[in-house]
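Weekly structure sync - notes
Attendees: PM, LS, DV (DV joined late)
Agenda: review two folding runs queued last week.

Item 1: First target. Sequence and structure tokens pasted below for the record.
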Amino acid sequence: GDLLGLSGVRAYANLNLGRLHLERGDPDEAERAEARALTIGMSERSPRVIGAARVHLGTIALYRGDPALAEAEALAAIDLLSVAPPLQAGAFAVLARALSAQGRAEEARGPAEQALRMVDSGQHDIFDALVRVAYVEAMIQAGETELAKRAIESAVRSLGGRAARIEAGPKRMAFLERVSLHARTFELARQLGTIE
């Protein structure tokens, strides 16, 4: 079930710390934080925490250039996160990116489409940008340029909407340019010619 109390706070703090360390380019510290979250999730029997940690561990594996490990983590996370569709969307997205990274374009398409359906149905949570990037990458690899273009336009709009809620200035610029998935969104948009 869902964690309450101190162990829950510690689990979620470590999940977020792991993301932060990876953003700063430190996969080793990121992995340590996610491992701590995983341990707490296991001792508390929380599929949500275990699954979320596995999504992040999959992302770390991708960052390190180990898509086979990322695929294994994502598959484990998908099973665990049937209890939490918004998090499960992230697991499908990591699976799609892992398969894309292995050149398995046809296989990547299914999980990429599944993740996007979950995000578009309003079930998105923390993995919105990840899901959209994974889908666009999978469509590019599958040769579906028009689908990729439509999806990247939607991704840029979604980010723009979220950025608009942050006061104009350095914080908004950091949100758009320093968060790696957000920077990747604009990179894909330029690659597809949907923005200058």
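Item 2: Second target, run right after the first with the same settings.
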Amino acid sequence: GFTPPFSWLVRRGVADWTVRDAADGVELTWTYRFTLSHALAWPVAAPLLRVFMRGAMERCLAAIAALLARARTIAVVGLSTDPGRPSFGVARAMRAYGYRIVPVNPEIGRWEGEPAFPTLAAAVEAQRAGSPIDIVDVFRRSEHVAAIVDDCLRLRLPALWLQLGVIDEAAAARAAAAGMTVVMDRCILVERRSLG
């Protein structure tokens, strides 16, 4: 099912409500701080927030659907040859949907018959004669995201997808500000399956 692009963080009686809106390929984040006085006004505010959230979610889903519809080639950074790893299953399923998978991992030579590349730069260079990379799908720990964004910007790649649990707000904001389409903390396979 759909996981709404918002989160709650409650600490010392204060709730922070964050909405991430990826409309038009730009990730926007709003954070609202609710205290007890806000909670008393909740019956009045709730309908307005529902309308706002519905619109934000619809724009977010539309941007994701458009990205997946126009993409043909996905570079999977951190793709594993171990069938038990999430990257393997997701990449295999996305290939079954018709996407071309470009493995990026210096530890492997091939993945499912496809040549693997040690870096994004090597992968981009190898694609020059064929179809360009449309999405960089990241299966690396969050601390590696900033360097991956540096590579994406240098190579002028159009879209960055950070898988579930891969979160770097600053790097994602930098990529979005430079014009990249950015999706963070979402599974590309779950989103593709939701399109039917």
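Discussion on item 2: The longest strand covers residues 14-21.
Action: LS to circulate a short write-up before next sync.
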